[in-house]
């Protein structure tokens, strides 16, 4: 059976990591059995979570893992997509994982002392107090460097949040009138969208992007529907905390 290595759960959502939530959602949407091993990124192959172990192999990076899962266990989520829809899915994935994700990371790791305190407690809850503070500080500096390397971390906060608001508006427009990003059937890109959006809408970290996203009822309903369907043991997410 697949072993999924990820952060401990927090905030009544699948995971405080967007990519851990994405991968576990994919596994559940695709009906692939797995077990969870809670860990921290210091123990991960590339210093990041999630990663999996399966049939003697260790694989990291959610994109690589999902491609492997599709090859080994079948592609039940995306096999119905047209070439045009596959192109759309890739574009949405890039918006979610290469842009909106970084806006959310700025909100958690750099925007305000209270946001940082909440994020640190959730991410590093598995470590004893003195060690948790030290490791969290190291990772915060690392994330700051990644934000600057991406480019978004060089902008004023107002500009960062305006860019994030545009991402959210695009997602809201795409979902209006349909159940999932590419129509009435879920596909793998919905696992990515849910992983990012649930961590924006239902985590206790504040930002102008979150405030705007909470006014988009179509996004709230989308996240609620996916969580209740695929993570019924968690119950309904708490939005706006």
From TrEMBL:
<dbReference type="GO" id="GO:0005737">
    <property type="term" value="C:cytoplasm"/>
</dbReference>
<dbReference type="InterPro" id="IPR050931">
    <property type="entry name" value="Mito_Protein_Transport_Metaxin"/>
</dbReference>
<feature type="domain" description="GST N-terminal">
    <location>
        <begin position="1"/>
        <end position="77"/>
    </location>
</feature>
<dbReference type="InterPro" id="IPR012336">
    <property type="entry name" value="Thioredoxin-like_fold"/>
</dbReference>
<dbReference type="Pfam" id="PF17171">
    <property type="entry name" value="GST_C_6"/>
</dbReference>
<dbReference type="InterPro" id="IPR036249">
    <property type="entry name" value="Thioredoxin-like_sf"/>
</dbReference>
<dbReference type="GO" id="GO:0016740">
    <property type="term" value="F:transferase activity"/>
</dbReference>
<keyword id="KW-0808">Transferase</keyword>
<dbReference type="Pfam" id="PF17172">
    <property type="entry name" value="GST_N_4"/>
</dbReference>
<dbReference type="InterPro" id="IPR004045">
    <property type="entry name" value="Glutathione_S-Trfase_N"/>
</dbReference>
<dbReference type="InterPro" id="IPR036282">
    <property type="entry name" value="Glutathione-S-Trfase_C_sf"/>
</dbReference>
<dbReference type="InterPro" id="IPR040079">
    <property type="entry name" value="Glutathione_S-Trfase"/>
</dbReference>
<dbReference type="InterPro" id="IPR026928">
    <property type="entry name" value="FAX/IsoI-like"/>
</dbReference>
<protein>
    <submittedName>
        <fullName>Glutathione S-transferase</fullName>
    </submittedName>
</protein>
<dbReference type="InterPro" id="IPR033468">
    <property type="entry name" value="Metaxin_GST"/>
</dbReference>
